[in-house]
Amino acid sequence: MTTRTAIARTRRPLPRDLRGRGGSGKTAFMKPPRTLPDFHHENALFDQGVLRVAGVDEVGRGPLAGPVTAAAVILDPDCIPEGINDSKRLGRGRRESVIALLRQCARISVAHATVAEIDEINILQASHLAMRRAVQGLSERPDHVLVDGNRVPVGLNLPATPLVKGDARSLSIAAASIAAKIARDEIMRDLAQQFPGYGWETNAGYPTAAHRRALQDLGVTPHHRRSFAPVRNILCRGQN
């Protein structure tokens, strides 16, 4: 792993002409185009003498079933693959192409918090638990961690900076979002084979209409989060 090389990522320029089309002469107030994550935050830390920066992100806070998954990634400044972006903006094929490149030249650690842990300590704390485990699982200890969100997980015990919407701002966090998304989707596809009918192979456990109907028709599985209201309500009705 090399130390630091300044990498500048340019952002897409705003459109010069924001005037509306047609003959009304009115100005159309357009939203600026989405920007791509860049290496600005990492480079700022390198300039302060930091050698290894990890980005950490989680996926799976909203589903009714399955674990919450986090990934931590240390990018090599000399080997950053093209195409890294917030995983929500990438299709499955593109995510898999990017992760294949990341596995060649980045440090990646993936960790989970189980359904039982989610029900015991709540989803926010379980998300932070998965994040801590992911950082601790890295083969090299980072000197600083960029965390997606507005809080640093308690007990991380490393210098860290929270970044709101960090997966759209930092390449390291965006890379972590891809790794976490791929790992969790694979788990849910495997579980879908064991528990068919809930659509986990496509909805990843999120509360889609089809998933909710399956809960009503097929009942609650061991992989459903009993602390989540739609699942808890079904269990309560079954006890009456």
UniProtKB/TrEMBL annotation:
Manganese or magnesium. Binds 1 divalent metal ion per monomer in the absence of substrate. May bind a second metal ion after substrate binding. Pfam families: RNase_HII. GO terms for biological process: DNA replication, removal of RNA primer; mismatch repair. Residues 51-240 form the RNase H type-2 domain. It is found in: Cytoplasm. It comes from the Bacteria. Its main location: cytoplasm. GO terms for molecular function: manganese ion binding; RNA binding; RNA-DNA hybrid ribonuclease activity. Its cofactor is Mn(2+); Mg(2+). It is an enzyme of class 3 (hydrolase). It catalyses: Endonucleolytic cleavage to 5'-phosphomonoester. GO terms for cellular component: cytoplasm; ribonuclease H2 complex. Keywords: Cytoplasm, Endonuclease, Hydrolase, Manganese, Metal-binding, Nuclease. HAMAP family: RNase_HII_B (MF_00052_B). NCBIfam families: PRK00015.1-1, PRK00015.1-3. This is Ribonuclease HII. The gene is rnhB.
